Amino acid sequence: MGFTLQQLSDLEEIKILKHRYFRAIDTADWGLLDAMFTDDVFVEYLGGNYRVELHGAANMREFLANSFVAETMAMHHGHMPEISFTGPDEAEGIWYLEDIFIHFGRKDHTYGTAIYRDVYRREEGVWKMARTVYDRVMEVVMPLQEGANYTVHRLAETGRKPHEVKDISHLITWDNLA
Amino acid sequence: MGFTLQQLSDLEEIKILKHRYFRAIDTADWGLLDAMFTDDVFVEYLGGNYRVELHGAANMREFLANSFVAETMAMHHGHMPEISFTGPDEAEGIWYLEDIFIHFGRKDHTYGTAIYRDVYRREEGVWKMARTVYDRVMEVVMPLQEGANYTVHRLAETGRKPHEVKDISHLITWDNLA
Amino acid sequence: MGFTLQQLSDLEEIKILKHRYFRAIDTADWGLLDAMFTDDVFVEYLGGNYRVELHGAANMREFLANSFVAETMAMHHGHMPEISFTGPDEAEGIWYLEDIFIHFGRKDHTYGTAIYRDVYRREEGVWKMARTVYDRVMEVVMPLQEGANYTVHRLAETGRKPHEVKDISHLITWDNLA
């Protein structure tokens, strides 16, 4: 019963993996993503008016680098992990996301929450994400807040500029239901 | 000095208990609450214009199922636990809550924070909440945000509909001080 | 490879140190800060229109007690730690902050995020902060929200009143760039 020392150490490594992931995307620090995904990673995100589905670490990196761009401002905080082991080198994790995503091009401000369901796999001693799927709990889309002064905007410096952004429309489907 | 292996394992189990609780309430996934409270659990919440006080797991489940209802949208994130052991099968925990609670019936949007003080007890190998009390640090009540588009609303599907909601006025006191 | 039992116990103690710090400042519970900083602690915060730089536990306590005052309302939540050991009694930590700071005197509401880079040192068996530095990821400054009703405001009771606040202008530089 309970967790072994090895599992407690693994839990800490898995949490750090996920923590570093969120820090990487919100700051566009793409080097941090090295060795973070298995080659065959599966990704699916279900939002209010979008659905992302992609396979493979290269597509994931391309999706992220073209989403967290200079004309956006982002906070993605993964909270309250519920991690369990399905083998010595495999684990599942549930996380509860809170996020803010401000898009200056679209002039909108989205905030909300989602439940992540991940699978982690240890490859050559390193825990990686093999599957990461989220489904929204709540999502609110607003116009930019009146009177808001955006006094620090890290992605404006570190994210891809409009002329650098590549087409990722094969990875995301937009339903203009809103 | 420091924590033993058993205690570190217990800490992880207690954290998962609390994490699962927050996920359960915001998604109205009531089956997750099974075996989460001791039969004699004591609950007290002090908000800006409400006071909840109740005893017993059955009342707690009834309170929750009639609060997280279809006409509400909720985020309850418990952060930064400070857990200490008072015996092999008993522990105390402090958590720092951030929450959003939108009530479409009342047309208001509340957000704030609170400090939880919990007691956990292990019964037949399972950690449960024996006491959970919170006191607000800050609370802001606003009208619904202008221009807000509620694009995902999980509780609308999973929470009790108006005709299913039961009277819980014996468990909560409202002071219309605001 | 991985963490030892001693390190896992130390990780928990370091996390509790940081968690207690955030609870202390938002509630102005200054007694909680005892033994939390090394005497030679170095602090630097880079915000959109401020820069804090200070040395020493006494200055840090003075800075905090005169910042988290009765005319402010605050939420500081440190998330997603990435902690690593640089010796048996020294560790480094990265945390991802989400904060809200409402100043009723200035009639403004600031929210944002930042990345902390800390150094921890164990002195006579107690982990303390030896260095804590943050750099903003995003920061938004707004007027007070229209229609907002501040229904709980703990710092109004526990924070220093205007006539008790001391001058800390030697510890903080304001650039009125906004």
Description:
3 copies of one chain form a homotrimer. By secondary structure, chain A is α+β, with helices and mostly antiparallel strands. Chain A has a single domain, classed as Nuclear Transport Factor 2, Chain: A. Chain A is built from 3 helices and 8 strands. A 7-stranded mixed beta sheet of chain A has the order 3-4-5-6-1-2-8. In chain A, 39% of the residues are buried. Chains in contact: A-B, A-C, B-C.
Task: Set out the fold topology.
The structure is a homotrimer of 178-residue chains.
Chain A: H1 5-27, E1 37-46, E2 50-55, H2 57-65, E3 72-87, E4 90-103, E5 108-123, E6 126-143, E7 149-153, H3 154-158, E8 172-174
Parallel strand pairs in A: 1-6
Antiparallel strand pairs in A: 1-2, 2-8, 3-4, 4-5, 5-6
